[in-house]
Amino acid sequence: MAFNRSDSATYLAGQLAKEFARALQTRAAKLGFSAGQFPILLELWNEEGLTQKQLLERVDVEQATMANTLARMERDGLIERRPHPSDRRAQLVFLTIKARNLKDEALSAASEADQALFAGFRRFEKELMLEYMRWAIENARKL
Q1: Domain ranges of the chain
Q2: Hey, how many other C-beta atoms are within 10 angstroms of the C-beta on 26?
Q3: Whole-prediction pTM value?
Q4: Is DNA-binding given among the entry's keywords (predicted)?
């Protein structure tokens, strides 16, 4: 019996994640950031002055990925790192004015990406799909 990728939730979830990232990347690149930086920007727009460790816990990526992403964000003028007041080994991450000014356009770009990928869905279908996605993610985290 042949494996049918279109019947595999794992395969489809991976493809869906790629397409969402691609849709956001297209819009984000015009604004000066990458789709991979977006989750970090979201966290920092909500709360600045986080350590790399706190960002790791919130964004749930590998340590090396976080370090590389923060280095690129610093190079691109999106963040600045400042010494932690009580831990000499840690640094606090803050947004630059450039990144703060990106917030509204970036959130609009993410919303546009969502809308493009949910084109043709009725409202309840989109809400149901989002609920199923959250449910599946919760289940996956229990594994």
Answers
A1: 34-141
A2: 14
A3: 0.86
A4: yes
Q: Digits of tens for pLDDT over the chain (143 positions)?
A: 778 888 888 899 899 989 989 999 999 999 999 999 999 999 999 999 999 999 999 998 999 999 999 999 999 999 999 999 999 899 999 999 999 999 999 999 999 999 999 999 999 999 999 999 999 989 988 98
Q: How far is CA 62 from the centre of its chain?
A: 13
Count of positions (residues) in the chain: 143
Which pair of tokens denotes residue 39? 């989750």
Q: Which of 18, 23, 46 is nearest to 119 (CA)?
A: 23
- Look at the block and give the residue holding tokens 């816990």: 57
Which class is 34-141 in CATH?
A: mainly alpha
